[in-house]
Specification:
Number of helices: 9
Structural class: mainly alpha
């Protein structure tokens, strides 16, 4: 029987593997594989009263996904045009696209959070552990 810390450590390691920024597959497939894992893990472990944990893990997972997008876009020109296609103003897209910050710090910026917001990630198929927890405990 695993204790809470070990299960959480293993979960984070598996999510890191599934959101590897250098993994050469499409984001659609990457999100699909991550969603499968999150659904299975959520339905197994989220019977416990750990609502705040689900909120914190969702935040962390979405940041990992944003880092994957940022890494796949690679060049500043691609970053700027992709951000603009997703509704970011030209000025903010340029400021985000030409930054020298790494993917982790960039994933926290305003422009990326506007473009790759929670609604956009949900539309791409990413599930929320919070929503799974609410469904388990309160039904729909």
């Amino acid at each position: 029987m695993q204790n809470h810390e070990q299960a959480l450590k293993k979960f984070k390691a598996n999510v890191r593997e599934l959101t590897n920024r250098n993994w050469g597959i499409s984001m659609t497939l990457q999100i699909h594989k991550l969603t499968q894992y999150l659904r299975g893990w959520g339905h197994y472990y989220l019977i416990a009263n750990a609502y705040q944990l689900t909120v914190d893990l969702d935040h962390w997972i979405r940041r990992r996904i944003r880092m994957c997008y940022w890494r796949q876009w690679r060049k500043p020109r691609t970053k700027v045009s992709s951000l603009m296609k997703l509704g970011v103003s030209e000025r903010l897209a340029i400021a985000c696209g030409i930054t020298s910050k790494g993917p982790c710090r960039s994933s926290k910026t305003k422009g990326i959070n506007i473009a790759l917001g929670n609604d956009y990630l949900a539309s791409q198929g990413l599930v929320s552990l919070r929503d799974i927890w609410i469904n388990i405990h309160y039904g729909k």
